[in-house]
Design a protein that fits this description.
Elements: E1 3-6, E2 11-16, E3 34-36, H1 42-48, H2 60-63, H3 65-69, E4 71-78, E5 87-92, E6 98-103, E7 106-112, E8 118-121, E9 131-138, H4 140-151, E10 172-174, E11 177-179, E12 189-194, E13 197-208, E14 214-224, E15 233-239, E16 242-248, E17 254-261, E18 278-286, E19 291-299, E20 304-307, E21 310-311, E22 314-315, E23 318-321, E24 324-325, E25 328-333, H5 345-357, E26 362-365, H6 374-383, E27 386-390, H7 404-419, E28 425-429, H8 434-440, H9 443-447, H10 454-468, E29 474-475, E30 496-498, H11 500-503, E31 518-521, H12 529-535, H13 546-550, H14 557-565, H15 575-598, E32 606-609, H16 632-640, E33 644-651, E34 654-661, E35 667-677, E36 682-692, E37 696-701, H17 704-707, E38 715-721, E39 724-729, E40 743-749, E41 756-762, E42 766-771, E43 781-782, E44 787-789, E45 794-800, H18 807-812, E46 814-817
Parallel strand pairs: 25-26, 25-32, 26-27, 27-28, 28-29, 30-31
Antiparallel strand pairs: 1-12, 2-3, 2-4, 4-9, 5-8, 5-12, 6-7, 6-9, 10-11, 13-14, 14-17, 15-16, 15-18, 18-19, 20-23, 21-22, 23-24, 33-34, 34-37, 35-36, 35-38, 38-39, 40-41, 41-45, 42-44, 42-46, 43-45
Helix pairs in contact: 5-6, 7-10, 15-16
Length: about 800
């Protein structure tokens, strides 16, 4: 049987000085062996050795730039080959990025792709004893600049040359990420010893027949030793309790075995059914039945289609799983750390569980990052989170010539085969914004006929998917309208990105269109207060301090934040107010879009928020900040993505109450809609019946008694149904006659678990009351976000991680929208 020995111990790291400007590296580093971790990176090893200040803090990122410009060598020792095996392979699951691999001074090969694995035959090199191993990394900048010089300049939305090298693009910086150009053995390294034959690739194609039979067609590729070439082999495939065995002829290096499972229990996205997973095992044996190699995964039986049919509104973009059309409640995922070797299986599980608990059912793995670790997709399988997987191209024109083209094809074929066992994976997407860039960002004129990636997105990649993983749909890009007959970001066709809002327009502009599928949209806000306190040493914190601006990577980001506040609020007079209002505006902006688009289901079939997570402490569009703290947007997303959503919408100038129901059962209820004065007096009230069948939206018009505003500056609407609330103000906050916020605060402790319970009772109207738990203690977490209270109403937050609860501290951590009067 094959034996695998991890190569995780005994590594050292050494700086190669040729490309380092004198004075940039720490004194004495050149020629010094630094202890190294594998998997890991140069940055993490230098930090562990005390040779590099944490680049996430203050403006240390700038001082770390030299690391990415330098060349580095990792060294270790390979163990001696066990004599009972015919073959020994040195395997790297990931090398970042441009490297020369040597054993005993002999060059085994060169690499130039972070997104591939590599295998080298070292049988003879370790036959007589241990052998020295070196992996010498050349700066990614050097490779990228050499390719650019050879193939010519291509348009790029960012200044760094990431489109000339197959490396995580966002390590070169993004409008939410730092520029930390990494190098290192970033995924597992090991020695594999085997005899006769091994499983080189296993590709299970899963389908469901009309009678409910689950079918797994398993395509196997084999490697054989010289002596194993002429031997007969056997393959045994098992799915659940069903097995099938076939013979593999001598010399054959491929085989297909099909397992049929009658009445197979289906895998469903969360909220639609169970996430049933079936064990799948493939065993390779020699003719005498001796085990040679094995492979195991979990599979799920389900069908997935992409409905792009034409209709009265254009052409659809609707995911259909097991015959059920879905409104996708999605988030965009970026690498959870710009130093990705630090992201553990536990961290994946924590972050994706947070997504599921917020009502998310689709996660888009964005094209400027990485193909994530198996642990990511395993958790998505278990939680019922559908995965939209981008191929790794983003915001730039990519040359189609060598050396990139062959690397891209090899990368695509390997990763499609690697990820296809996961039932959560429902869509392959060719790129992020590159088709749009060619058509609408003046790339076509700048290219003057040079290749730019179209051959990948409309040729190579769909061919790879069709050949390797034909059970899943492929889409050429996001945004993409389906053909060149329409501009790529046409909201009436295919996927759309909504970035005029935020960049140039107020979020009320969301209400002017109904895209078929909103694959990117969002609004910025700073991270939690405690995250800023940890990352920045400047005191006092201000919105425009040098460190704060360094942790704001968007072009004119703070200007856009302030311009976004201006239609609604007076200019904040202090940092705490600015921080609260910008976080509130983020939640309100996203709510405006999702409520509007979701109320237009099935015309609009999904929203994918930009973005779920951050890769460091930064002002960004994320719902979960770089220290894993939940921003108010997270709790808003939990409301917006719940199975049932109550909202007040405008339809052709008339106000309606909408009941959006993504549950299977009918939502049969009554909404109480009131027109309320600023002092809490109810001016009019009506009961509105709402009956929304499963997976549908009910719209009911509101009669004059509640919509006949006397003075919009002193009246607003409140709708309540089954514990859900919607509010509608007919004028901006800055024009509304808010009374001074008045409320009582009490703090108790739940004896069962020690949780602090903060209760607020309103004496008058209190709008968008928010408890910023991290102001109570750095590790404190609250279980809810903003609430709007009428006189006499109360709200409760449960707070964990608060060692010394007290009412004064709780009051200081509460914020709301008011006239600026003192809070009582």
């Amino acid at each position: 049987m094959k034996v695998c020995t991890p190569l995780s111990q005994g590594w050292t790291l050494r700086l190669n000085t040729d490309r380092v400007t004198p004075g940039e590296a720490p004194p004495g580093l050149a020629g010094t062996d630094v202890p190294a971790q594998v998997p890991g990176s140069v940055h993490t090893d230098l930090m562990a050795a005390g040779l590099l200040a944490d680049p996430f803090l203050d403006r240390n990122e700038t001082a770390a730039a030299w690391v990415g410009l330098a060349d580095w060598t990792y060294a270790a020792e390979l163990p001696r080959r066990t004599g009972t095996f015919e073959r020994a392979d040195l395997v790297f699951d990931g090398l970042d990025t441009v490297a020369a691999v040597r054993v005993g001074g002999r060059l085994l090969g060169r690499t130039r792709n972070m997104h591939r694995s590599y295998r080298f035959d070292v049988t003879d090199l370790v036959a007589d004893g241990p052998a020295p191993l070196e992996v010498a990394f050349t700066s990614a900048y050097t490779e990228a600049e050499d390719v650019r010089a050879t193939l010519g300049e291509r348009p790029n939305s960012y200044p760094e040359p990431f489109n000339y090298i197959r490396k995580m693009a966002c390590s070169f910086g993004w409008d939410w990420g730092p520029t930390l150009v990494t190098a290192g053995v970033w995924r597992e390294a090991r020695i594999e010893q085997w005899s006769t034959a091994r499983l080189a690739a296993v590709r299970p194609q899963v389908s469901v027949e009309p009678d409910g039979t689950g079918v797994v067609e398993i395509v196997v590729e084999l490697d054989r030793t010289a002596t194993g070439r002429d031997r007969a082999l056997r393959l045994v495939a098992t799915v659940g309790d069903t097995s099938r065995e076939i013979a593999v002829d001598p010399g054959a290096d491929t085989a297909t075995v099909t397992v049929r499972v009658p009445d197979a229990a289906l895998w469903w996205p969360r909220g639609y059914g169970d996430q049933t997973l079936h064990g799948c095992a493939v065993a390779l044996c020699d003719g005498g039945g001796q085990a040679l190699d094995s492979w195991e995964r979990r599979l799920g039986f389900r069908t997935v289609e992409l409905d792009t049919s034409a209709d009265a509104h254009g052409s659809a973009f609707t995911l259909v799983v097991n015959g059920t059309p879905l409104f996708a409640r999605g988030v965009n995922w970026i690498p959870d750390d710009v130093l990705p070797s630090r992201v553990t299986a536990g961290r994946y599980r924590a972050r994706l569980t947070q997504a599921a608990e917020a009502g998310v059912d689709l996660v888009r793995v964005w094209g400027g990052g990485i193909y994530e670790d198996r642990a990511f997709y395993d958790v998505c399988d278990e939680l019922g989170l559908m995965v939209w997987q981008d191929f790794l191209f983003a915001c730039a024109a990519y040359p189609e010539e060598q050396p990139l083209r062959s690397e891209i094809e090899a990368e695509a074929r390997e990763n499609v085969a690697r990820l296809m066992p996961h039932p959560s994976l429902v869509l392959w997407n060719g790129n992020n914004e590159n088709l749009w860039g060619f058509a609408d960002w003046e790339w076509e004129q700048a290219l003057t006929g040079d290749s730019w990636g179209e051959g990948y997105y409309l040729g190579l990649l769909p061919r790879v998917v069709a050949q390797t993983d034909p059970t899943r749909p492929y889409w050429a890009g996001s945004p993409w309208s389906g053909s060149w007959d329409h501009t790529p970001n046409d909201p009436d066709h295919g996927t759309a990105h909504s970035w005029e809002v935020w960049n140039r327009r107020d979020y009320s502009d969301y209400l002017t269109t109904v895209p078929r599928f909103v694959a990117e949209f969002g609004w910025q806000a700073p991270p939690a207060y405690a995250t800023l306190e940890r990352a920045l040493s400047e005191r006092p914190l201000t919105a425009e301090s040098p460190g704060m601006l360094h942790h704001q990577k968007a072009e004119d980001g703070n200007g856009k934040l302030n311009r976004g506040l201006a239609p609604y609020f007076a200019a904040p007079s202090d940092f705490d107010t600015w921080h609260y209002l910008t976080q509130l505006n983020q939640a309100r902006a996203v709510a405006a879009g999702v409520e509007h688009w979701r109320s237009h289901w099935p015309r609009c079939a999904g929203t994918v928020l930009w973005q779920l997570n951050d890769c460091w402490p930064v002002t960004s569009w994320a719902a979960i900040d770089g220290d894993a703290r939940l921003k108010p947007l997270y709790f808003e997303m939990r409301r917006l993505y719940a199975d049932r959503l109550l909202t007040i919408q405008d339809r052709d100038g008339e106000l309606v109450v909408a009941g959006c129901n993504q549950a299977a059962a009918t939502w049969d209820t009554h909404a109480t809609v009131r027109r309320v004065a600023a002092d809490g007096t109810v001016l009019a009230s009506v009961e509105v019946p709402l009956e929304a069948e499963g997976r549908s939206v009910a719209l009911e018009g509101l009669p004059d008694p509640v919509t006949a505003f006397g003075d919009p500056r002193r009246e607003f609407l409140v709708a309540d149904a089954d514990g859900l609330r919607a509010v509608h103000f007919a004028c901006p906050d800055r024009e509304f006659a808010y009374p001074a916020a008045s409320y009582d605060v009490s703090v108790t402790e739940d004896a069962r678990d020690g949780t602090a319970v903060v209760t607020v009772t309103a004496a008058g109207l209190v709008r968008d009351l928010l408890l910023q738990a991290d102001r109570l203690a750095a590790d404190a977490r609250a279980d809810g976000g903003r609430v709007t209270l009428l006189p006499g109403e109360r709200a409760t937050w449960r707070v964990t991680g608060w060692p010394r609860p007290d009412e004064e501290a709780a009051r200081a951590a509460l914020f709301c929208v008011d006239s600026g009067a003192e809070r009582e």
